[in-house]
Design a protein that fits this description.
The protein is an all-alpha fold and about 170 residues long. The chain has helices at about 1-30, 35-60, 75-85, 95-120, 130-150, 155-165. The termini are far apart.
């Protein structure tokens, strides 16, 4: 049981660190975003991450623990990728930034789903609704980022049409 508790706490601390990193980083990233849709999505993610941080702090309090993070290097790397893609608009831009953040959302969903299953197993009924709400929000955010990451660029279509015309 001790190993299980350690894994649960480590996952909780990783998701807490992830949300804290998002809150700290998104305003910096969104400040240099050119795409209005991505700016709006980043604003939504920022607000929800602030709320999710509070929910995680409530989980710590239910467990009678002081909120503490454990460095999530996955989050750090994906946020750096998002920043780099946004900063280098020629090689990634909006789509690259959205794709990196989408990968981060998938990581978060995995962490939250693990916490949900383990919380149910431990019969921590008071934290289950907060975790479920966070998962639902993450899925909405992932959907919005997916639309941006896989949107067709009108310039790509124009190039494809001109190449097609040149071949025929």
């Amino acid at each position: 049981m001790r190993k299980f508790e350690r894994v649960y706490m480590r996952t909780l601390r990783h998701i807490y660190d992830t949300e804290k990193q998002l809150v700290a980083s998104l305003s910096l990233i969104s400040g240099s975003v050119a795409d209005v849709r991505l700016t709006g999505t980043l604003g939504d993610i920022l607000r929800q991450s602030e709320e999710q941080t509070q929910r995680i702090e409530r989980i710590f309090s239910v467990l009678y623990l002081e909120p503490r993070t454990e460095a999530s290097w996955v989050t750090t790397a994906l946020l750096r990728d998002a920043w780099d893609a946004n900063a280098n608009r020629l090689e990634g831009g909006t789509q690259g930034c959205a794709a990196a953040l989408l990968a981060l959302k998938r990581y978060e969903i995995t962490l939250y789903e693990s916490l949900l299953r383990w919380s149910e197993q431990l019969q921590l009924d008071e934290v289950v609704p907060d975790i479920r709400r966070s998962i639902a929000e993450e899925l909405v955010q992932a959907s919005a980022l997916s639309d941006l990451a896989y949107a067709e660029d009108p310039n790509d279509l124009a190039i494809a049409h001109s190449e097609h015309a040149a071949l025929h």
